[in-house]
Automatic annotation (TrEMBL), chain A:
The FUZ/MON1/HPS1 second Longin domain, residue ranges: 341-442
Stretch forming the signal peptide: none
Any one cellular-component term (Gene Ontology): Mon1-Ccz1 complex
Task of the protein: Plays an important role in membrane trafficking through the secretory apparatus.
Organismal lineage: Eukaryota, Metazoa, Chordata, Craniata, Vertebrata
Protein name: Vacuolar fusion protein MON1 homolog
GO biological process, one term: vesicle-mediated transport
Protein family: Belongs to the MON1/SAND family.
Species the sequence originates in: Megalops atlanticus (Tarpon)
Automatic annotation (TrEMBL), chain B:
Entry annotated with the keyword Nucleotide-binding: yes
Protein name as catalogued: Ras-related protein Rab-17
The family this protein is said to belong to: Belongs to the small GTPase superfamily. Rab family.
CDD domains to which the protein is assigned, alphabetical: Rab5_related (cd01860)
Pfam family, one: Ras
SMART domains assigned: ARF, RAB, RAN, RAS, RHO
Coiled coil (UniProt feature): none
Length: 619, 224
């Protein structure tokens, strides 16, 4: 298997300099294609060259449900019996693969350590030449020397964010080598944001991107992605904005797309979708940077978080493990401090959720999506300015309602350490003093219960606490916490500890998880269970109707013991459920005439007859 | 004023002085992005300096200022200079007794924008009721100065504004600025009944630092 893999990798020398920019379909079907472009509607345009995965199954993984060539993707196993599924389905193949070092070690690419690197298989080099061709044809010859490098081979290891990457030289090799570039531009081709380097300096590169988008559009189609051997380029269009990710992280197109959507939503959270649309309706070539000035850090922070925090990958919220009695008493403190038009009270520590209390009528109509909460968490994390005082700011929650603002009150409860942050969302922009008074009450409540000290003691846990040998790390996301229907999707995960204590190692593990995630959620061939032997660890991911689980074991684990470990892990999680998750998020009712001082505990959620004008006016 | 109810009530209760002798002053900081509004606010309230990220929305801080015959509780609204927040800025400066328009002496553009802010503000305030100050910040960067002292001063004189060149970084002239404003605000609100009841004893212990809670106020020491 491995040999075959390498042989196919070898004939990289095929040149397609003369590749017409519309990328002939005949050529793309073969191995000798420099770049693969996939589109929304492959039938419609002449750009039909979308064979994304010419080598559909490399077989380095024991991909249980559809091992080589099996066409039914979902078949093989039920949730109950992973062990039998494993032994039945793939015994022969998996045996060879469960050796930790041998078969799995991929010689050509040590830093990745992924034995199967499906995303690299499907293309060959010279994407840059392809780009140059397109550039030339697009009449942008002046770009041909330096700038297309955004799309050219580079593929170094991940780089930490440079201290002043706004000033980076965009023609430098180091710029090209960034693991993941993200660009935002307007439909008129105006640069709006670049993760690295100054947008101004990149305006012609972005012009090229827009040329690609428009070119495909003129054929009544939509460009979705371009694959080269080193890079994946993903395009997302949202209203008048075009977002482009140029990545050599080997993430799936789907993952990159969802990351771009986060970027879009963060922009919407600051400006609202309605106003973005309105602005560009009025003036097509408006420079949106004017409105985003000062917010680059928030977008930078978001992209760093997306790379380093699995919450985004899992679309779930990570809450800080807390004794349920403590969590309940925190919730009660929040429940008692209410004022009309308050809709969410959220307590955050160490960038993780402590508790969230919601207005009753709100939860009945809509719920706070994890993505919206991620944007809020990022906003708080990215703005050290919050530590100075109390903040009152308009903020839009794009999934809740992309066109309207909430007003957010943000303040730290434990200055000067600033680890516990209170976030109160109101629909009334004039409510600052009333909401600030709620904070005063919460302060008081926390003080009387000595809650801050308890929070400070709260910690994430270590995988060793599970008591399963060989288990190094895991991520567990239940789909439906019992009695918690339509609730915030959450996940739990221990601290990353040795050998994942360095930044690089952590990123490497996350990359492995991302890889498993992409296989599990592959749109063409989704898997339910995947046992993956990497060079330095063995991973097992499993998705059922009840949960999604990713586990990482030491490389010496056997398949049988891994299955065993998972059974134990699930039992442990069940036992710890109350501590790991927010089980019953409380609600309150901020009716216009409450006797609010006496209102508290469950009493707060009794009334539901009165509707909240402030909230309704939002909709 | 209805909107002050919550905060005012809460603080007054916890303040041993009681509120009768205290004049509450809403002061708003305006100006383009990066001129140092947040740094000034931090100097005002905590006499500290940190490199800060751009303000999101508006930050609210408080500070007590003791004059020899009155105590003023400044509620400082430090607005974001970014354009996207301009539409909501009136929310913050409405009803302010004091407004500081800040520019950066090393950035000509910010001076031009300060004049726009002034125009904007003129639509809102009633002359004589709002004390408006023009603040030329970053005087520590005088080597790369783009706006001369004279320019700023004559603009302020034309419009009848208080003028001060400050450095939030070094702290130069910052407390003087706040004092100056305090005096003017007090003058412009003579009719305030509370002032007569102000008690001298309150100011005696002003020299020690404020209480540990940063959100509560501490006092400037003033030699008047």
């Amino acid at each position: 298997m491995e040999k075959e893999h390498q042989e196919i990798e070898q004939p990289k020398a095929v040149r397609c300099c003369d590749l017409p920019s519309n990328c002939d379909a005949n050529q793309t079907g073969s191995v000798e294609v420099p770049a693969t472009i996939s589109q929304d509607n492959p039938d419609a345009g002449e750009l039909d060259c979308g064979i994304e995965d010419p080598f559909p199954c490399k077989g380095d993984d024991a991909a249980i449900t559809s091992t080589n060539g099996l066409s039914e993707p979902q078949g093989a196993e039920g949730e109950g019996a992973p062990a039998s599924a494993l032994s039945d389905g793939t015994a022969g193949e998996a045996d060879g693969l469960s050796k930790p070092e041998g078969a799995a070690a991929d010689e050509d690419d040590p830093p990745e350590n992924v034995s199967d690197s499906a995303s690299t298989d499907n293309t060959l080099e010279d994407s840059n030449e392809f780009m140059v061709t397109v550039l030339a044809r697009g009449g942008l010859e002046d770009q041909a020397d330096g700038t297309p490098s955004a799309l050219s081979e580079a593929g170094g290891p991940a780089q930490g964010p440079a201290p002043s990457h706004r000033d980076e030289d965009v023609t430098a090799e180091s710029w090209r080598r960034h693991r993941k570039h993200v660009f935002v531009l307007s439909e008129a081709g105006k640069p709006i944001y670049s993760r690295y380097g100054n947008e101004e300096a990149l305006s012609s590169t972005m012009g090229v991107m827009m040329a690609l988008v428009s070119f495909v559009q003129s054929g009544d189609n939509t460009i979705r992605s371009i694959y080269s051997d080193e890079h994946t380029v993903v395009f997302v269009q949202q209203g008048p904005l075009v977002l482009v990710s140029v990545s050599c992280s080997r993430q799936s197109e789907q993952q990159l797309r969802s990351e771009l959507l986060y970027v879009y939503r963060q922009i919407v959270s600051m400006l609202t979708q309605a106003s973005i649309t309105r602005i560009f309706e009025r003036k097509k070539n408006y420079d949106l940077r004017r409105l985003l000035a000062g917010s680059e850090k928030i977008l930078d922070g978001l992209l760093n978080l997306v790379d380093s925090d699995p919450s985004f990958l899992l679309s779930a919220v990570h809450c800080l493990p807390l004794a349920s009695s403590l969590r309940d008493s925190l919730s009660q403190i929040l429940q008692k401090a209410i004022t009309p038009n308050l809709v969410f009270s959220i307590l955050i520590a160490k960038n993780q959720l402590l508790t969230i209390v919601q207005e009753k009528t709100v939860i009945e109509d809509a719920r706070l999506e994890p993505a919206d909460l991620h944007l809020l968490l990022n906003l708080i994390g990215a703005s050290s300015a919050f530590q100075a005082g109390e903040i009152w700011t308009p903020i839009c929650l794009p999934l809740f309602n992309p066109d309207c603002y909430f007003y957010a009150y943000i303040s730290y409860l434990d200055p000067p350490e600033c680890t516990v942050c209170l976030l109160l969302l109101s629909t009334d922009k004039e409510a600052f003093y009333a909401v600030a008074e709620c904070k005063r009450k919460i302060d008081e409540g926390m003080r009387t219960q000595n809650a801050l000290r308890s929070i400070a003691r709260a910690q994430s846990y270590s995988a060793s606490q599970v008591g399963v040998s060989d288990l190094r790390h895991f991520m567990y996301k239940p789909f439906d916490v019992p009695d918690n229907h339509r609730q915030l999707t959450q996940f739990t995960s221990p601290e990353m500890e040795a050998p994942y204590s360095s930044e690089e190692e952590r990123m490497r593990l996350l990359d492995l998880y991302r890889y498993l995630h992409s296989r599990i959620h592959s749109s063409s061939r989704p898997l339910k269970l995947i046992y993956h032997v990497a060079e330095r660890e063995t991973l097992l991911a499993w998705v059922t109707s009840k949960f999604e689980l990713y586990t990482c074991f030491s490389p010496l684990v056997t398949k049988a013991s891994a299955i065993n470990a998972i059974t134990k892990l699930l039992r442990w999680i069940k036992k710890e459920e109350d501590r790991l998750f927010i089980r019953n998020p409380p609600k309150y009712s901020t009716t216009p005439n409450p006797s609010k001082s006496s209102r508290g505990g469950k009493g707060g959620s009794d009334r539901q007859d009165t509707t909240d004008n402030g909230f309704l006016s939002l909709l | 004023m209805a909107e002050r109810r919550g905060k005012g009530a809460g603080e007054a209760r916890s303040d041993p002085r009681g509120k009768s002798g205290m004049l509450r002053v809403k002061m708003v900081l305006l100006g383009s992005s990066g001129v140092g509004k947040s740094s000034l606010a931090l100097r005002f309230s905590k006499d500290d300096f940190k490199d800060s990220a751009p303000t999101v929305g508006c930050a609210y801080l408080t500070q007590l200022v003791c004059l020899h015959d009155a105590t003023l509780r400044f509620e400082i609204w430090d607005t974001a200079g970014q354009e996207k927040y301009h539409s909501v800025t009136p929310l913050y400066y409405r009803g302010a007794q004091a407004a500081l328009i800040v520019y950066d002496i090393s950035n000509r553009e910010s001076f031009m924008r300060a004049q726009l802010w002034l125009k904007e503000l003129e639509k809102q305030y009633v002359p004589g009721e709002t004390v408006v100050g023009l603040v030329a910040n970053k005087s520590d960067l005088s080597s790369s100065r783009q706006v001369s002292l004279q320019e700023g001063r004559s603009l302020a004189e034309n419009k009848g504004l208080l003028f001060m060149e400050t450095s939030a970084k070094s702290g130069n002239q910052v407390s003087e600025l706040l004092l100056d404003i305090a005096h003017r605000v007090k003058l412009s609100s003579r009719e305030d009944k509370g002032l007569a009841e102000w008690r001298e004893a309150d100011c005696v212990d002003m020299h020690r630092e404020g209480r540990p809670r940063p959100l509560s106020s501490c006092c400037l020491t003033i030699g008047l």
